[in-house]
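# nightly structure sweep
# worker-07 picked up a monomer target from the shared queue
# config: single-sequence mode, recycle default, output format = structure tokens
# input follows
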Amino acid sequence: MIYFAHRGASGLRPQNSISAFALAQQLGASAYELDVHLTKDGVLVVHHDYSLKDTTGFDVPIKDLTWSELQTYTLINRFSNEHCTVPSLTQVLPVVQEGLDILNIEIKNDDNLYPGIENALLKCLEQHYPQMLPKLLISSFDYDTLVRTRKLNKTVKLGHLCRQCDLSKTLALNAYSLNMNYTRLTADILSACHANGLKVFLYTVNDPACEQELRACGADGIFTDRVDLFLNSRKV
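# output follows
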């Protein structure tokens, strides 16, 4: 079973912050999940929502901000007094690279809001962290984003992130995995995926009893906000 630190150790630190990824790494994580957007001036940044409302209290779209403007917004931190801002992807990658097995980058790009983000992401990895490319898993809820990514790179691993399973679309991508909500998983879906060589990764699981059930039925991995519950952690 693979335990993806979902937005880092997001149950213990502000989600998708450097602090969250650093803590996950200290806890022994070797698999991570994060989300990327593009700023107005083309910087890949790590944040979940399209707006800063839930993370900073200001309802401002990331696409309307430059990188320097984005840094003026402070992430709400319910865990400590540590000052956190939205990081760039190139700030996060060095934090997770040590001991990395798999990095799931979810491209936020509904309706192609960020034209060219797929190419920007691949070029960023190729230029700065080529050693991470074999460990990269790109996912998105926007199917066309995955289609464009596959056209750009025939070998990168794709995770078909979906709310309703359509195996024909997953297979058409030559995907590596099906990523879906654990509550929608059925024995038939799991069996069909494995029969076609697909991994099944499930979100978001924070209950050890639920994890045990999913592991027993053959799930390949979970995304969790509390990676500390599932790993033998080092003292931090």
